[in-house]
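Can't attach files on this board, so I'm pasting raw text. These are the components:
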Amino acid sequence: MALEHAILVSLTEQAATGYDLARRFDASIGYFWRASHQQIYKTLARMEADGWVSATIEPREGTADKKTYAITDAGREELTRFTAEPSPREALRSDFAVKLRGLADVTAIVEDTRRRRADHVERLDRYEASAKRHYPDPDAVEERERGAYLALRGGILSERMGIAWCDEILDQLETRSDR
Amino acid sequence: MALEHAILVSLTEQAATGYDLARRFDASIGYFWRASHQQIYKTLARMEADGWVSATIEPREGTADKKTYAITDAGREELTRFTAEPSPREALRSDFAVKLRGLADVTAIVEDTRRRRADHVERLDRYEASAKRHYPDPDAVEERERGAYLALRGGILSERMGIAWCDEILDQLETRSDR
DNA sequence: CCTTGCCATGCAACTAGTTGCATGGGTACG
DNA sequence: CGTACCCATGCAACTAGTTGCATGGCAAGG
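---
Top answer:
Structure tokens for the assembled complex are below.
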């Protein structure tokens, strides 16, 4: 399970509440790991029990206490252990590819492909803007930012690939049905 | 859930036992959907209860009956319905990207990246061999094979992208630490 | 003052997927 | 004759992730 490790990475950069983490998972970290707030709270509780994070509690009246989590030494150790083990190949699961393979309704698939293409373009724009802003000179990325930079590059390459695939699909399915 | 739909697509091509399906999920369909035999048997049972597939039972002595599943009209309808609905963007979850982002141990990551690169190369070779064998002329792919062809193209593009990403990572992490 | 939206937490019920185990026949090789 | 490998099915226990719901403060704008 890597949600725990994604949280640890995020806490290494900056201590945070569950809510903060959920927002980070909607942004930067969310480029390669999605998580709902429910799952984050659940996981944080388990991680605290395991001693990987520690919480500073700020009591609030009338509502639940605010808990800010920080990574512990045990958490850092666990992160190192995790980094050392070979990462399993991602189980790729694509509803879209299943549909495409079935090709039950060309019109519906063309429509879906256009939607996906637009989504890829939108994300690519965001990633590229982020890259330009944070790392204007790719050859001069600071040591401690290199991981984040390379992860972002993965996002960029992945979106570009998605666009190229959509273009191939549209080319094959549109122009041919027009003829 | 698309495992059900992946099974339906597979059964559209050819009726099969759970065991057959498990092997298909280790090969062609497995390019974009993985499933263990346990999960396939469980899902087939549910699909039969839902009337999407029907089983022909061949009794065997001493061991469990052999069941060959075929898609039903209701199954075909469900597949059409599924194709018509927009496919959700895949939740991308990458242990590797999490590790990379953390960048806790450069040596370990370089090693892991090399392993991943080799895996991508191996898969790319397989996919390209498969493409060459089944679709020697991409412009002359038969109508009913177009979906499978385009899905395979997705696999090819995806592996190429993976290799390119690994190369970037290795370039940044290796040459720089050598200096 | 009321609504909208952000800050902040969490439970409960469910679905999907993984891991480990169990059974047993047939066929091919040494 | 043993062993290994393919064919074939499935249960049980567990882990991860989703969906829906509930609570409540505080600030800004109309």
